[in-house]
Design a protein that fits this description.
Elements (H helix, E strand, L loop, with lengths): L3 E7 L2 E8 L6 E6 L13 H5 L3 E5 L17 H15 L3 E7 L1 H12 L4 E7 L12 H7 L3 H7 L3 H11 L5 H10 L2 H12 L8
Parallel strand pairs: 3-4, 3-5, 5-6
Antiparallel strand pairs: 1-2, 2-4
Helix pairs in contact: 2-3, 4-5, 5-8, 6-7
Length: 204
Amino acid sequence: MPLREHEIVALGHRSPVAEAGAADAPEAVVLLHGNPGSRLDWLGLLPALGAHARAIAPDLPGYGEADKPDELPYTVPGYAAWLDAALARLGVERVHLAVHDWGGAIGVRWAMDHPERLASLVAINAGGLSSTYRWHGFARALRTPGLGAALQATSTAATFRATLRRTNPLLPVAEIDRMWSHNDRRTRRAALALYRSVGDPGAL
């Protein structure tokens, strides 16, 4: 099933979208990436999904090739509101969510606000959905005043690669390098704000 790439504007912010399947179907599989990902994380899966349903993967604001504005609230509720506006622009009324990492918290927050529109949910390595969840080491560092900002400000391709290879040893180097290509100062700022916006990760 061929892929389509286009852009939408939701809440005033532009975002690239990758799609497969019926272009105008009001029911769709919506795939949400995490940090430090983008819609490109899902390119290998979209064609297979598109053979059965409309499948959509957007870049979340602050990530990938989407707008990275100063004024967007980089919070779980803020992203959930953006997602709802994006679905309206895409004409999607009923949603099968497939979510990864921070996409899990964002997708669940949207689903809690719109339970009548949720058809199904698949969560992949999505923390923060349980009261027993505890921040991983890098998250704790990002949330530490002074340290988190310093880590983001001094991040290089070498340190980025080393961190992801240590925490995700099966992730191909080419994928890590692709993620780094999008991990500019504004993306690092968005990630820092998102990690710091949450108190108890089990109460998202």
